[in-house]
Amino acid sequence: MIGRRMRPLLLVLLATLGCTETRSAQCKEVCKREAECVDQTASKMPFDEKECIAACAALEADKADNGAKVQRHIDCVHKQNDCAAILECR
Predict the structure, then answer these.
(1) Which of 65, 54, 64 shows the shortest CA–CA distance to 18?
(2) Residue 83 in contact with residue 40, Cβ under 8 Å?
(3) What residue ranges do the domains of the chain occupy?
(4) What is the dihedral of CA 66, 46, 28, 90, to 10 degrees?
(5) Which one is predicted more confidently, 22 or 58?
(6) Which of 25, 31, 87, 88 could join 52 via S-S bond, C-beta 3.0 to 4.6 A?
(7) Averaged pLDDT, 58-87
(8) Residue 48 or residue 9, greater confidence
(9) Is the pLDDT of residue 49 over 90?
(10) Whose CA is closest to 30, among 1, 59, 10?
(11) R_g over Cα of the chain
(12) How far apart, in whole angstroms, are the C-alpha atoms of residue 65 and residue 44?
């Protein structure tokens, strides 16, 4: 999941890329799964699915610096069967 440490970077990227960033199907899927896990585990972690999708798509589009990190996170979520493990993906 894209956490608080990534938010300043997200704001810079959104300012650079604009708000017309396309939303990746992979980002939507991963963020939906993470939101379900936050609900299922009654996690106290603040999580906003729409914010997750926007951050993921913006970071994914920045292939030079962040694309690989986003793909590793997506791969991690896909490999996990358990919500606790999904929420541990970085």
Answers:
(1) 54
(2) yes
(3) 4-14+22-88
(4) 40
(5) 58
(6) 31
(7) 94
(8) 48
(9) yes
(10) 1
(11) 12
(12) 30
